[in-house]
Write a structure and sequence with these properties.
single chain; alpha/beta; 7-stranded parallel beta sheet; two-stranded parallel ribbon; binds NADP nicotinamide-adenine-dinucleotide phosphate; binds ligand G4F
Length: 331
């Protein structure tokens, strides 16, 4: 039997690397789209690099998308590429819209041209709920995005739904709540906390500066969430699904768990910095993944506390091996 073929945009990112491993384990031929850069940023996929077929492309460039789809001939397309850091979306609002909004249309158009029979997954976000209209949030909760990133993702979500309805494409939108791992970028709050807790424990740092400690998120483990992406594309009908744990925790709780894990007191190590507050904040997100449980049989396996402890342990191991590993990603 010939192997199924998958194309992942954003394969060098946190989710892309876990999804690539997941699909390889299931016998897929995995293709990835990567941006050209003067220095390669393949740290997260180093361990599987020789089992992947990489294609150079960019969500800003239509030609490269059509060529990538023609070369990879995917049965399944996972569109994970995006400018994913919410805080940066106020600094680069139009670029964020180009990548994370219009980029979705470009890829869907390329799919219509090159492989209309493929199945398409769009990485939508709980950030679209923003100033939430109900608690918990479901597939039917109206959006009220609070950042240029959230606005761009709302466009990406609706264009995915629209191409499903207009052209009959198998196009699914996964509305994923925050998910983290030892491979999370260092700028996101969980990883910033776990990296600093480890660095303070090892005497490499003394202080951690944070913004809003009261913000609450529904945080899960990225490994659990890529399984949900795959399950969605195995459904005969394309649809929208919320993926979440159903529990919210504050940044403050995350701090406490991380510092407990290294056995260091928070006193004197943590400062709040008004410069890290956002122009418009999302105070609390909490999702109801009941539809995914009923239809896909999906449930998260890693709890919030296990996740944060796992991330702290990975950062301790990373920094013990290489105290200069400011930019490195743990496995
Ligand atoms: P991530 O680690 O920041 O990875 C983003 C990926 O997108 C990287 O591979 C990056 O490539 C690529 N990329 C960015 N701009 C691109 C462009 N113009 N053309 C091609 N590739 C581009 O993000 P993640 O956490 O894995 O998230 C994956 C997706 O899920 C994103 O769309 C994100 O917005 C969405 N999402 C994430 C979460 C979460 O909590 N993690 C929740 C909901 C939705 P480089 O390596 O070249 O920068
Ligand atoms: O870790 P964060 O930067 O993640 P955020 O903004 O929730 O976005 C992540 O989840 C979205 C899904 O809801 C994704 F779509 C998106 O791509 C990304 O993966 O911030 C979480 C919370 C915020 O309320 C922020 O204000 O933590 C608060 N926070 C407090 N101090 C901080 C900091 N966030 C960061 N990044 N850095 C701080 O120092």
């Amino acid at each position: 039997m010939t192997a199924r073929r998958a194309l992942i945009t954003g394969i060098t990112g946190q989710d892309g690397s876990y999804l690539a491993e997941f699909l390889l384990d299931r016998g897929y031929q995995v293709h990835g789209m990567v941006r050209r850069s003067s220095t390669e940023k393949f740290e997260r996929i180093e361990q599987i690099r020789d089992r992947l077929e990489l294609h150079q492309g960019d969500l800003l460039d239509q030609r490269s998308l059509v060529d990538t789809l023609r070369a990879s001939r995917p049965d399944e397309i996972y569109n994970l590429a995006a400018m994913s850091y919410v805080a940066a979306s106020w600094v680069q609002p139009t670029l964020t819209a180009e990548f994370s909004g219009i980029g979705v249309t470009r890829l869907l158009e390329a799919m219509r041209e090159a492989c209309p029979e493929a199945r398409f997954y769009q990485a939508s976000s709980s950030e679209m709920f923003g100033k939430v209209r109900e608690v918990p949030q479901t597939e039917l909760t109206p959006f009220y995005p609070r950042s240029p990133y959230g606005v761009a993702k709302a466009y990406g979500h609706f264009i995915t739904v629209n191409y499903r309805e207009s052209y009959g494409l198998h196009a699914t939108s996964g509305i994923l709540f925050n998910h983290e791992s030892p491979r999370r970028g260092l700028e996101f709050v969980t990883r910033k906390i776990t990296w600093h807790a480890a660095a303070i424990k090892l005497g490499l740092q003394t202080k951690l500066k944070l913004g809003n400690l009261d913000a609450e998120r529904d945080w899960g483990f990225a490994g659990d969430y890529v399984r949900a992406m795959w399950l969605m594309l195995q459904e005969d009908q394309a649809d929208d699904f919320v993926i979440a744990t159903g529990s919210a925790h504050s940044v403050r709780e995350c701090l406490q768990i991380a510092f407990d894990q290294v056995g260091v007191s928070l006193d004197g190590h943590v400062e709040t910095d008004p410069g890290l507050l956002r122009p418009a904040e999302v105070e609390q997100l909490i999702g109801d993944a009941g539809k995914a449980k009923r239809m896909l049989g999906w449930e998260p396996e890693v709890s919030f506390e296990e996740l944060i402890r796992m991330m702290v342990d990975a950062d301790l191991a990373l920094l013990s091996r290489d105290p200069g590993a400011r930019r490195a990603y743990g496995r």
